Structures are given as structure tokens and as C-alpha cells.
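testing teh design pipeline on a random one, pls ignore if ur not involved
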């Protein structure tokens, strides 16, 4: 039985500004759209209110500076919703950082240190474990807009009711 998820567009956007930041005049808008691929390979978009495992959803996060002064040190954050996984290489601009805990961000692919046979080695973090993307946009001028895009694929987590189960393999 295939499950259907609703409200994938419910991801929330975050803006990170330094504590002593100038008055924030940033409006945010998040658009979620289902990517539909035609037989000829061309892509179109459809409403993303409902999605099934295997569907690809594209998020477009738009940040608009409604003020006249530039906003500095802007960091745009896009959470990766539960029951989805980031589609590798889909982030635009491509310099997005990823996180598994929404606190620490690093370049992709993410790696972590693990102990195997008594030795510490680095291994890639499975992409299914990525929970958030962040772009360090720097400065957004007055009356300017910046958009950030990434795609996720809806996954069929075999045990969505179990706390802490993120569907990742070992």
C-alpha cells in the first residue's frame, strides 16, 4: 500500500542574522511544487498539496528585502521535511551547506568520523539523513530579492510511527 503525504509545503523558512543586526525588513515566501516529467523528458510543475513516495518536490525559498538599506550576513535556511530526502545536486545556488541536526552545516557531501575495526575513519553521511540546507547569502541590498531552490524526493519510510526512525540505512 502506498502512503500519501499532505502538506509538504509546510516546511518553514529561517533567516539567520547576527544579534546586533540592522533592523530586519525581510519578507519570506516558500513555494512547493511537484516536478512532473513528460515522456519527452521535459519538466513541468503541478500543485504539491499531496505527494506519494517517489514524487519529487521542488522548494523555492524567496527572501525579499523590503527596506532601503542592505541586510548583511543573511543566511537562508530550508528544512528538509520528514519523509523526504534531498535530491543531490539540486540546490541552487549550488554552494548550499547541509546539516543533519540543523545546527552544524558543512559542504556536501557530508562526512563523519566512525570507528570500524578499532580504527577511526571518515565515511559519507547517507543523503537520507540530511535535515536542512543553508545558503550564506551575505548581503541582500535594499529592495532586492534572492531565491534559493532545492528538490526533495518523497520516501516511503517503512516505520513512520516509530520515534527517531528516519528511514536511513546502515
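output:
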Amino acid at each position: 500500500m502506498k502512503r500519501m503525504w499532505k502538506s509538504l509545503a509546510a516546511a518553514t523558512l529561517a533567516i539567520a542574522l547576527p544579534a546586533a543586526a540592522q533592523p530586519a525588513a525581510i519578507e519570506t515566501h516558500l513555494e512547493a511544487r511537484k516536478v512532473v516529467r513528460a515522456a519527452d523528458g521535459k519538466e513541468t510543475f503541478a500543485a504539491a498539496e499531496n505527494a506519494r513516495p517517489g514524487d519529487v518536490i521542488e522548494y523555492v525559498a524567496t527572501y525579499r528585502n523590503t527596506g532601503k538599506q542592505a541586510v548583511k550576513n543573511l543566511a537562508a535556511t530550508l528544512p528538509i521535511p520528514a519523509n523526504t530526502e534531498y535530491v543531490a545536486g539540486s540546490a541552487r545556488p549550488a554552494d548550499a551547506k547541509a546539516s543533519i541536526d540543523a545546527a552544524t552545516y558543512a559542504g556536501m557531501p557530508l562526512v563523519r568520523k566512525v570507528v570500524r575495526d578499532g580504527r577511526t575513519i571518515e565515511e559519507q553521511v547517507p543523503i537520507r539523513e540530511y535535515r536542512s540546507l543553508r545558503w550564506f547569502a551575505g548581503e541582500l541590498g535594499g529592495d532586492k530579492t534572492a531565491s534559493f531552490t532545492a528538490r526533495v524526493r518523497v520516501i516511503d519510510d517503512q516505520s513512520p510511527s516509530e520515534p527517531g526512525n528516519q528511514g536511513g540505512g546502515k
